[in-house]
Amino acid sequence: MTLLDFLNFYLVPGIVLGAIYAVGAIGITLVFGILRFAHFAHGDMTTLGAFVALALVGTGMNPWAALPLAMIITAAIAIGVDRTFYDYLAKRPKIVTVMASLGVALMLRSVVQVVWGVDPTTYASGIVRPNDYFGILLRPRELYTLGAVALIVVGLELFLRRSKWGKAMRAMSDNPDLARLSGVDNRKVTMLTWAIVGALCAAAGFMLGINTEVHSMMGWHLLLPMFAAAILGGVGRVQGAVLGGLVVGVAEELSVFILPAQYKAATAFALLLLILLVRPRGLLNGKVL
Amino acid sequence: MNKKTIAAFAGSLLGAALLAAPAHAQNVRIGLLGGISGPIAAMAPSMLDASRLAIAQVNEQGGILKGGKLEIVVGDSACNPQNATDAATKAVNIDRVIATVGPHCSGAVLAAANSVTVPAGVLLVTPSGTSPEITKLNDKDLVFRTVSSDDYQGRALARTLKARGTTKVAVAYLNNDYGKGLAEAFRAEFEAGGGVIAGYSGHEDGKASYRSDLAQLARGGADTLVLFDYGDGTGLTILRQALENGFFKTYIGADGMKSEAVIKSIGAQNLTTFFSSAPVGEASAALDLFRKAFSAAGGNPDAIFTTTSYDAAFLVALAIEKAGGDKAKLSQALREVASAPGEPVLPGEWAKAKKLIAEGKDIDYKGAAGDHEFDQAGDVPGAYAFFKVSGDTYEAISEMK
Which residues cross the membrane (chain A) (predicted)? Predict the structure, then answer.
């Protein structure tokens, strides 16, 4: 096997996949860090975002132009879900919210199945052969995916570090009571968090959909690698989620060298177990679970 | 009226209703379990419609037993063992069905049979569970299928490829009862015929990228990929990624890959080197009758597994009629109505069959998908054809021997 084969068929797919996991994992890490619960509906919210984009593409929009709009719509849906289900349970033990999120996951999936059906579909029919960049084979959609992920990560990082609301979110993540005493409106921060999480879900779902197919179980299958990525990087850390996503994506693709291919899906699980055993704070020192 | 009298009155009414019930309880319920969601979701509606057609014909032509109706309870087995067990449990324990048509997928059939229907003594006839594992089930003669085992299909596919001059292939299979069963049968026959398997690996459902799996398989140097998977699921992802990267030149699928979803999302112009095998009904008067009736009912008789789905439901109805609604006699009755000798009954001829059974005559159902002469394990031999993509659908190019 040549170096180029290794890059083209193992590393590049791993990085593209990892970038998608990363966007999903950022959402999980934000919910975990700021709202302090494991959001099991994340995968199915991702599916919903992908289908919202599909509906927009159905009206004749270019898929990449539909993405920002789908992110806004899914953000609104995420706020709605929080208001309808999670807000109501805020005073109860967190485990109740966790279980409720599992129920929300099933509901979201059923809505998708009722509205759009269960057949796999695509944003654009046909196949795209890759372009050759000095031996590296890349499709335009993969370049756009990587570009969009970079944009999202840098934008979010800037927002969290520089803006007033970003700082408020970080404050609430560190200590909600102290943040409230300092004048941070917890309710608004919660809403803002859900808006960002919803938008990230739509982005992850769309990018997975455009690189493979759009179907009603796509997000659910993503849940394990996304959680593994968030925990691997360190819960509550955006850079950690990105790093974790890339590690999980690349590890899955490279696992076929040492393991039979049917154990590929177990790679994320194995990584998750390993990091919990060896370094429970994650690579970048997140919260302890 | 005080409360006690009302209660007594209500009680006696209820009692009367219960006593009176058997005289009217001629209706018989059967379960229709299918992969409505999950990886064969695009195939399931046609299959269910074909089964419903059989039931509708029964009810139009005199109903079942003494003027009763055959009722169906639809359950979603989702093509996976957990959902199949849930759906079968609900059908058997809550809806009290005495037989089920389906589940559709092999893993679902094995789970539902092992944990629900066989212990409950409920007859199960699957129209599409093709794994060789189903043959080996310890089923107290309660599990039958109107589709033949993949042992036949895998071997027939191996012989067909040899006949087409392919001597070296890579095999990718979905790691479940369906994919694995096919792959093993294919490999045994292909290697026995002197072919070379240059790559052989299973994969899990639901991953986003299979390019590294494909790259590993392609390293063996084969230019043909044999893909045992579902065209509504991972099979589509794998086929797309293989085509986009040019890992192989020719792609061969089995019945699970013969899905319209593949053509719709990849495009016929990109599928000129994609072929698939699938069971077909042998040309017969029975098949013509079914095609006519199903077309008239708005169905597409060319959709995969519609013939077997129709036959499964019709056979179950015949068996119930023959057994007089007695659950314990169903499997024996099924063998009697399906096997020679006897007066031939064709699809849709319910009134005739009902009359013959009433007269105590032996009947032999000649189904749309074949004669259905069940062997010891409840299996039937099958006929297969080799398909290519043509326009928006599949076109048979040759019989498979």
Answer: 6-33, 40-58, 64-83, 95-116, 143-160, 189-210, 222-251, 263-280
Residue A261 pLDDT:
82
Divide the 401 residues of chain B into consecutive groups of 10 and give the mean pLDDT of each group: 56 49 69 90 91 95 90 93 95 95 93 95 94 91 92 92 93 91 94 94 88 91 94 91 92 91 90 90 86 94 90 95 92 92 92 93 91 90 88 87 75
Single pTM value for the model: 0.82
**Are the beta carbons of A262 and B211 separated by less than 8 Å?**
no
Q: What is the pLDDT of residues A244-269, one digit of tens each?
A: 999 999 999 999 888 888 888 888 88
From chain A, the residues in CB contact with B236 under 8 A are 120, 213
CB-CB under 8 Å, B245 with A130: yes
B-chain CB neighbours of A257 within 8 Å are 216
Q: Are B281 and B257 in contact (CB under 8 A)?
A: no
State the residue for tokens 């950690």. A240
Domains of chain A: 3-120+136-278 (1.10.3470)
Buried b (16+ CB within 10 A) or exposed e, A204-230: bbbbbbbbbbbbbbbbbbbbbbbbbbb
Angle subtended by helix axes A186-211 and A12-30, to nearest 10: 160
- Does B151-280+384-400 carry CATH code 3.10.129.10? no
Averaged confidence pLDDT in chain A: 92
Per the CB < 8 A criterion, the answer to whether B130 and B148 are in contact is: yes
Assigned CATH for B26-148+283-365: 3.40.50.2300
Query: Which residues in chain A touch residue B261, judged by CB atoms under 8 angstroms apart?
Result: 119-121
**DSSP string of A201-220, one letter each residue:** HHHHHHHHHHHS-B-TTHHH
Beta bridge partners of B125: B101, B144
Q: Which of B110, B143, B109 is nearest to B34 (CA)?
A: B109
Helical H segments across B274-388, by residue range: 285-296, 306-323, 330-338, 350-358
Nearest CA in chain B to A219: B206
Q: Whole-angstrom Cα distance, residue B107 to residue B128?
A: 11
Query: Nearest-CA distance from A242 to chain B in Å?
Result: 18
Query: What is the Cα–Cα distance from B290 to B345, expressed in whole angstroms?
Result: 12
Alpha-carbon distance A174 to A168, whole Å?
Answer: 10
Report H helices in A125-237.
140-162, 164-174, 176-181, 186-211, 218-233
Classify residue B340 by its DSSP letter.
S
Confidence of residue A145 (pLDDT cuts 50, 70, 90): very high
Provide the ipTM.
0.85
pLDDT digits (tens, 9 = 90+) for A185-241: 989 999 999 999 999 999 999 999 999 899 998 999 999 999 999 999 988 889 999
Q: What confidence score (pLDDT) does residue B401 get?
A: 75
- Stated length of chain B: 401
Which two structure tokens, joined as six digits, stand for A266?
Answer: 């177990």
